[in-house]
Design goal:
19% strand; single chain; 5 strands; 163 residues; 6 helices
């Protein structure tokens, strides 16, 4: 008698405001490790966003068409609670520098205390993406600088139309 293998689902949470090539790189690598990866865009009503959540979701969706086992969604609240709703047992977190690790380790340990059944997988960005952050992209875009080296084409097009 065959037993059905449980699908390995991972959540890749973040604000993705906007999504960068570094985010996509992490997603591409995570998609090779898991059966399904859900990019979960945090809808934080207490924080002023650069782009509306619906636009972020749409831009990510356009940027991940080439990744068959990835999807995008949005949520509000605790990441581990969202992960439970989606039957995910893993969270994906990207690290650019040592300074990211300290914060991410604390977050991971807090999540572990709430939901010990959900693990965190840290993926280190490729060196060419180390310095890219959504904050830097927002800053450059606000001054009209070309951000095409840092973000997917869908974001570049969006920002051009938004001017």
């Amino acid at each position: 008698m065959e037993t059905k293998k449980e699908e390995k689902i991972a959540i890749y949470p973040g604000s993705f405001d906007p999504v960068t090539k570094g985010h996509i790189d992490i997603l591409e690598r995570a998609s090779k490790m898991f059966d399904k990866v859900i990019i979960a865009v945090l809808k934080n009503s207490r924080k002023k966003s650069f782009l509306p959540v619906a636009d972020r979701v749409e831009l990510i969706d356009k940027s991940i068409k080439h990744i068959e086992n990835a999807e995008v969604d949005f949520f509000d609240g605790l990441t581990v609670e969202y992960a439970k709703k989606r039957n995910a047992k893993f969270l994906i977190r990207g690290l650019r520098a040592v300074s990211d690790f300290e914060y991410e380790m604390q977050l991971s340990q807090a999540n572990m205390s709430i939901a010990p059944e959900i693990g965190t997988v840290f993926l280190i960005t490729k060196p060419k993406y180390n310095f890219i952050s959504s904050g830097i992209v927002k800053e450059l875009a606000s001054y009209g600088e070309d951000v095409s080296k840092f973000v997917p084409d869908s974001v570049v097009e969006y920002l051009k139309k938004a001017k």
